[in-house]
Known about the structure:
Blueprint: H1 8-14, H2 17-30
Amino acid sequence: MSQPFIPAYLKLLKSDELSLRVEQAYPHLEDCDLCARFCHINRRLTIKGAVCHTGEHATVNSFMVKKIHCVDDRVPERFF
Ligand code: SF4
């Protein structure tokens, strides 16, 4: 019998790896080098100088749900 599908983010949350990654990410946000623009601004304080005009919290403006053919029948459709 196969194991039930568990999304990777839930595994990270359960193992505390997600908290560790958040801690590791904040210094990069405070001297932003999170993309190839390398603005080196503190996005926790301001967006002035940020090419992306994004502060501490990014906003998702749109997304597209795409239903894909699932070869593995163990993954329920509701995940798509
Ligand atoms: S564009 Fe945004 S994400 Fe990229 S380095 Fe500049 S502030 Fe950081």
